[in-house]
Specification:
The chain has 91 residues and is an alpha+beta fold. It is globular, with a radius of gyration of 12 Å. It is built from three helices and four strands.
């Protein structure tokens, strides 16, 4: 089962858009499933996961939350979240 990264975002959120570019790069380099959750359209999902700020990233491995980042993050910080949990793609 691939790790799943939940990206809680909104279309109007500038930091979310910047993070979207980083996540698109990581999606090409690493083997995980990226699920974008628009909090304006899916507020009940954000509430369920106790997301109070956007952007918020939640990493799930084998149905267990293993990490969470809140606010705009650098690629380096996201890679720290991935460390030992998400495998690089074999090119």
């Amino acid at each position: 089962m691939k790790p799943v990264l939940l990206d809680f975002m909104a279309d109007w959120c500038v930091p979310c858009k910047a993070m979207g570019i980083i996540l698109a790069e990581l999606e090409k380099e690493y083997d995980f499933v990226l699920d974008k959750i628009n909090v304006d359209k899916m507020s009940s999902v954000a509430y369920f996961y106790n997301v109070l700020s956007i952007p918020t990233l939640i990493l799930w491995v084998n149905d267990i939350e293993v990490g969470r980042l809140v606010g705009a993050q650098s690629k380096a910080n996201i890679l720290k979240l991935f460390e030992g949990r998400v495998q690089r793609r074999k090119l």
